[in-house]
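dude i think i finally got it to work??
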Amino acid sequence: MSETTVPVTHTAASAAAPVIAESSTPRGRRARIALRTLQVVLALFYVIASALPKLIAHPSAVEGFDRMGWGSAGMYTIGVLELAGGIALLIPVLQSVAAVALSALMVGAFVVQLTYFDGENAATPLILIVPLALIAWARRRHNADLLRLVRRRA
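look at this
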């Protein structure tokens, strides 16, 4: 009997198991590597391309935040949030929460792009939300681990 004619049975437990996080098949391994690579690329983007110009007060960042009326305090605050989110994307217990937090920050960036900059780069935050949502979903099991850690320390 060929492999294609063998009936496949699914149990409720196997249907609910996340393929990316648990599978030991070659496909699952490739998916884990791809997801981890995506996390590293996004972390580098947030730390180097997004947070760093704000934290070193690059003239383009200063100009943008002055135009919004947020000044240096707003610029440094957003820079620190992006830096923390980028680093947290690489810490297993914080990955899902970091992706959700950065998604919320991107929603704010989208609104800011529409209101202060006439939608000039409004697509960028929306595009970044897609991989962040994927990371948040794929790494969601870490939320229970984080909750246990927080409860243990409280």
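The helical segments are 12-16, 19-22, 26-55, 59-68, 71-88, 95-116, 123-138, 142-153.
im so relieved honestly
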